[in-house]
């Protein structure tokens, strides 16, 4: 049960200055909590005003106490699948924590989710952080445990990576590798849509309530355009059957122009019928080489894996990724509205 905090004013962001206030609160909290992380990107955030993320309704809210912006809240609500869920992110300035502001933001999130006919909130919280105590206090359920791993670049042992790549190539003689930077080429849109859709069915979700997502070429184009509007370049490597067959495996790295030293791992998937040929390792290693050529200034790559996904963890650790921090995705039921 969440109780109201009466001396906190929470208002919805309606314009660019308001969004900048929201951003500044989150950036200050992130710098305090995770100083070695890449900083949040204002260019990405500002793009929400002109090109919201495809097929989601997003709301931003700012909490003020005595006129000072002290907390930030966002809700992202899918509009085509998983329409019962609201994805929630919140921050409170360090000097104002443990004063009920996080609880007030969570109450507002539940209120807004209820208004959009959502039945649950989903929040990703760093393990050992102050948000974890709040999740337990409000009765949220730990649904999925994952861990972030970081790969320093240039690699500490390039010879080991070369051996790993040679082994992966030898294990998959019937496949060839293709790749691109930026928007998906037209000839690959349908295959990438098919593979992207499998991410919502094949990746481990443990106890997280997440329904299959439907992807088509139009949705891939929308995502490509949204990334470009945010100054993010997607570097993609895929494996296909033979020289001209369909794509059956792919991996994505994301590089932000505002944070040149860092890249993030996106989706990686191998279709079930083509597993056992080390295609996951092959496309990831080839994409790492693509990143080195396209953005040699990158000094670290981060990836997240569910604790229940030992297969992808094994590939990443063989490549040199090492544990960096741990996170939990929590679910909190939204209580239905009561009649007056």
UniProtKB/TrEMBL annotation:
Annotated PROSITE patterns: GNAT
InterPro entries linked: Acyl_CoA_acyltransferase (IPR016181), Bact_Acetyltransf (IPR050832), GNAT_dom (IPR000182)
One family name in Pfam for this protein: Acetyltransf_1
Xref: PANTHER family: AMINOALKYLPHOSPHONATE N-ACETYLTRANSFERASE-RELATED-RELATED
Domain N-acetyltransferase, first and last residues per copy: 17-204
Transmembrane stretches, start-end: none
Keyword Acyltransferase found: yes
Keyword check for Transferase: yes
A single GO molecular function term of this UniProt record: acyltransferase activity, transferring groups other than amino-acyl groups
Name of the featured protein: GCN5-related N-acetyltransferase
Key words of the record: Acyltransferase, Transferase
């Amino acid at each position: 049960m969440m109780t109201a905090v009466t001396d906190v004013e929470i208002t919805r962001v309606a314009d660019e200055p308001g969004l900048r206030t929201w951003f500044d609160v989150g950036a200050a909290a992130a710098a305090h909590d995770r100083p070695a992380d890449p900083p949040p990107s204002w260019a990405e955030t500002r793009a929400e005003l002109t090109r919201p993320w495809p097929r989601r309704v997003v709301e931003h809210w700012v909490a003020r106490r005595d006129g000072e912006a002290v907390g930030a809240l966002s809700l992202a609500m899918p509009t085509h699948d998983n329409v019962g869920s609201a994805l929630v992110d919140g921050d409170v300035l360090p000097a104002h924590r443990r004063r009920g502001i996080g609880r007030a933001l969570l109450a507002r999130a539940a209120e807004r989710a209820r208004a959009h006919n959502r039945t649950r909130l989903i929040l990703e919280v760093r393990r050992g952080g102050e948000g974890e105590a709040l999740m337990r206090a409000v009765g949220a359920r730990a649904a999925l445990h994952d861990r972030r791993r970081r790969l320093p670049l240039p690699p500490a042992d390039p010879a080991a990576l070369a051996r790993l790549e040679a082994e992966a190539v030898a294990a998959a003689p019937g496949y060839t590798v293709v790749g691109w930077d930026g928007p998906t080429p037209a000839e690959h849109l349908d295959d990438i849509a098919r593979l992207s859709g499998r991410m919502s069915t094949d990746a481990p979700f443990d106890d997280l309530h997440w329904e299959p997502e439907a992807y088509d070429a139009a949705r891939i184009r929308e995502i490509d355009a949204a990334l470009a509007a945010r100054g993010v370049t997607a570097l993609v490597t895929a494996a296909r059957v033979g020289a001209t067959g369909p794509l059956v495996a792919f991996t994505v790295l994301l590089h932000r122009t505002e944070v040149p030293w860092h890249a993030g791992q996106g989706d990686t998937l191998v279709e079930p019928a083509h597993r056992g040929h080390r295609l996951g390792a092959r496309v990831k290693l080839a994409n790492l080489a693509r990143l080195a050529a396209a953005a040699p200034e990158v000094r670290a790559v981060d990836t997240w894996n569910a604790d229940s996904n030992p297969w992808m963890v094994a590939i990443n650790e063989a490549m040199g990724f090492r544990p960096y921090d741990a996170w939990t995705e929590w679910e909190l039921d939204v209580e239905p509205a009561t009649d007056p």
